[in-house]
Structures are given as structure tokens and as C-alpha cells.
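User: Some background: our group keeps a shared notebook of sequences we're curious about, and every so often someone picks one and asks for a predicted structure to add to the entry. Today it's my turn. The entry only has the sequence so far, pasted here. Could you supply the structure so I can complete it?
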Amino acid sequence: MISKPFAFPVSQWGLIDEKPISSDAGREEYRVAIGEVKNEKKETIRYIEENIYKDILNCLISEDEKVKKRYRLYQNLNQVPPIIVKYEKDVIMHNSAVQNYYMKIKTALEDISTDILIKAIAEAKSSSRWSAKKGDGIRALEALVRAKTGVNYHTELILYTVKCSILETEEDPLKIHTILSQMTEDQIVDFIGAVKEYSIAEEMSNETLGKLLDTYKIEEIEAEVNKAVTTRYFLGLLA
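Assistant: Of course. Here's the predicted structure to add to the notebook entry:
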């Protein structure tokens, strides 16, 4: 008998159990039906479940459009986990199991050549935001991770892990990546502009830049900012 999984739209998600589960992190998780498996007669065989932290679930199903639009959901019922949640541009751990998946992928990446990782990220960066088609680089990366772990991990989680690994291995003596990660896009633009303004006219009104100038020369700051911005743009962490 042929069976096929079908994803529910978020509006049709339902709780498997009204009582939440307490995770190791002390956050409550709900068992949520995010899809179903049907047979060839289109009869429901079983529901597809995923645990989701209560606070994240509330945001995903919120009726407040300002809240919902800051989150993006990636569903693939044939991968692990079957959903990945992004808050703005960053993947967030939507349950206590995702961090474990992340660590297993990270270990697998240690034996995968850098050129494969970079090609996959380049494809993800250059492809259409709405395109479901994967390039050869992403498929090759998925296959290698699957061979090393025995698990068909979610594409978005694999790419996220690669991005984190690249950021972790890049030398960042001025902690520019940390600074940028705590800023909104408007604040990043203002900061970059302030660095450029000071390098040209030695005029400055940006507090973050002022603190850096207490320790470093503008030439050092500008070089590290340029490097960090280039990396973050390539990784899709900037617009």
C-alpha cells in the first residue's frame, strides 16, 4: 500500500495533547500535529507530530501579523526535524531536540571539505528565495551528511550549521560579528556609515564606534568591519 505524507498549513495545526511537556531547558513544549500520512485511498493512517516550545508556537499561530511576519517556517516532512523555524534571518531551536541534531551535523561537517561547504552556501545565497529547486552543491552536502550520520537532516538546519561553523572559525579579534549580530539592519547601516565617515573626515557620533576607537585604530576597525560584513553577506545574514 502506498502512503504519502501531507503537511498542514499552520492554521490547521492541532495539539496532540493539551498538556505541555517540560523540557530539560525548563521550557514547555507541546506535541503538535503538523501533517498526516494518507494511504492510496486518501485515508489518514497517522498524524505527523513535532514538539514545539510553547512561546514559539504562540508566535507561529498568532493572529498578530506583525509577530507572524518575523518568523518563517520551512517544512519538509521527509527530513529531520520536519520543520525549521527562522526568526528574521536566524534559525531558532524550536524544541529541545534540535540542538542535538545541530551538534551531530556539526561533527559530520568536520570531515567534509571546505569547497563543498562554500559551494552549498553560495547556491543557497544565489538561488531564488521562493525556489524549491536545490543545486548540485546542496545535494552533495546533504548526501555526505546523511552518509556520515545515517539521518536525512533538514536542509535548512544543515546550511545553518555550516554558517555557524564558518563564523566560529573566522578570526574576529574585535568581536565585530558579535556586535553586528546584536544590531538591527538599520543599526548596522548606521554603524558601517559611521566607520566610513570617521575614516574620511574623522567625525563620529556612533556610540559603538566610539567604544572601539578607545582601543583600536580606525584602520583596524575598518578592515575588520569590511571582512565581517563580506562574510555575513555571503552567509545570507545581511540583506
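Suggested note for the entry: The chain has ten helices and eight strands. The two ends are 47 Å apart (CA to CA).
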